[in-house]
């Protein structure tokens, strides 16, 4: 192969003469270095896979957090319903009052205590102390409970 230089458009262009092939522009012989090679793609896939594996524990933690949040929302509603039931009544039951409800939404147990000044000397006359407690076992078999207490007037 014989190299020669010629002037084209004000630039010097190198040419190679090959036997039987005529003149070949040497710039065409250069490899195209645009794009990604196989090794670069493989390394980026490995880095991406390691990153996604790092996210897996956060996904399970997020699912567990959503379950806890759902349970807390349901329990708050059960507590609110029971307190509003007694706030809306005109006649309170005989004191001391205790009620136990089992199997609410299949997993929740609710206990209600109501006392007045005949049961608790710290409660003024005409005022009732209501305490509601909900117990349940979550999906990880951990016992949980939430309670709410308030005073209502006669």
Automatic annotation (TrEMBL):
Q: Which domain of life is it from?
A: Bacteria
Membrane-traversing stretches: 36-59
Q: Which InterPro entries match?
A: N_methyl_site (IPR012902)
Q: Which UniProt keywords apply?
A: Membrane, Transmembrane, Transmembrane helix
Question: Record keywords: Transmembrane helix included?
Answer: yes
Q: Spell out the protein name for this chain.
A: Prepilin-type N-terminal cleavage/methylation domain-containing protein
């Amino acid at each position: 192969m014989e190299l020669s230089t010629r002037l084209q458009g004000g630039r010097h262009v190198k040419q190679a003469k090959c036997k039987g092939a005529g003149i070949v522009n040497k710039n065409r012989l250069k490899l195209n270095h645009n794009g990604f090679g196989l090794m670069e793609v493989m390394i980026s896939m490995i880095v991406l896979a390691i990153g996604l594996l790092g996210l897996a524990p956060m996904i399970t933690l997020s699912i567990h957090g959503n379950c806890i949040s759902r349970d807390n929302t349901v329990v708050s509603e059960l507590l609110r319903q029971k307190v509003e039931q007694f706030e809306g009544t005109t006649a309170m039951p005989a004191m001391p009052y205790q009620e136990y409800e089992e199997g609410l939404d299949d997993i929740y147990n609710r206990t209600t205590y109501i006392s007045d000044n005949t049961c608790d000397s710290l409660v003024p006359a005409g005022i009732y102390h209501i305490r509601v407690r909900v117990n349940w076992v979550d999906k990880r078999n951990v016992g949980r409970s939430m309670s709410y207490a308030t005073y209502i007037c006669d």
